[in-house]
Q: What sequence folds into this?
């Protein structure tokens, strides 16, 4: 089955700086890579996703890159704001979603 | 908010109790999921239902028993649980399964087993 590794486990950034979270996956059959944000007391919510036929996708301050050859994908958050503080999960989908362990992002004011 | 509701939000039970978790989705989806979320670990898929039929049981102990009476409702029946079963239990739904479909999560039920 799919195995997803996520780094770092915690990330503290100054407000306005960028944050980068990296994930690797093991199954070359995976073709869908979503990123979820989980705030305290809530379930994970999709913030951006990318499919295997695309190398990069951007949505305002959030971008995701995918390198299928190396089997890794990354989340980039620019101009971080306090409301970006949350736990972020990457996932890879071969026939079911396999999640990384999460990254706790803290944005310092 | 997401169209997926879960009740109760918090549950404390003894190891000999029987309780049930309920999930309802208002999105018109055909697939529903149960996940277990423990601290600092990846979300663990437990069960998948597609068009009311169970399509995935991820080696879950029999003390967890799912039920899907229709595509909008999903239950997780609990009995003789262990303290290590304490976790956040998340329900999710998607258009169908399997496939690269966005999953919408409920807020979860925080379960504590004494």
A:
């Amino acid at each position: 089955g799919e195995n997803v590794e996520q780094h770092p486990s915690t990330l503290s950034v100054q407000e306005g700086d960028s944050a980068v979270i990296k994930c690797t996956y093991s199954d070359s059959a995976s073709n869908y890579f979503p990123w979820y944000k989980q705030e305290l007391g809530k379930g994970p919510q999709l913030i951006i996703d990318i499919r295997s036929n695309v190398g990069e996708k951007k949505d305002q301050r959030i971008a995701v890159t995918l390198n299928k050859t190396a089997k890794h994908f990354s989340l980039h958050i620019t101009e971080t704001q306090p409301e970006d503080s949350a736990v972020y999960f990457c996932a890879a989908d071969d026939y079911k979603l396999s999640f990384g362990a999460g990254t706790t992002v803290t944005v310092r004011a | 908010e997401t169209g997926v509701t879960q009740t109760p939000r918090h549950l404390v039970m003894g190891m000999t109790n029987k309780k049930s978790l309920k999930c309802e989705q208002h999105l018109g989806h055909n697939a529903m999921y149960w996940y277990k979320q423990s601290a600092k670990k990846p979300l663990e898929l437990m069960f998948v239902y597609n068009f009311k039929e169970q399509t995935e049981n991820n080696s879950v102990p029999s003390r967890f028993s799912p039920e899907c009476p229709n595509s909008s409702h999903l239950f997780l029946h609990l009995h003789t649980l262990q303290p290590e079963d304490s976790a956040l239990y998340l329900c999710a739904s998607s258009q169908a399964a399997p496939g690269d479909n966005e999953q919408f999560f409920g807020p979860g039920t925080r379960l504590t087993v004494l």
Chain A touches chain B at residues 4, 9, 31-32, 34, 36, 41-46, 49, 51, 89, 93, 95-102 (CB under 8 Å).
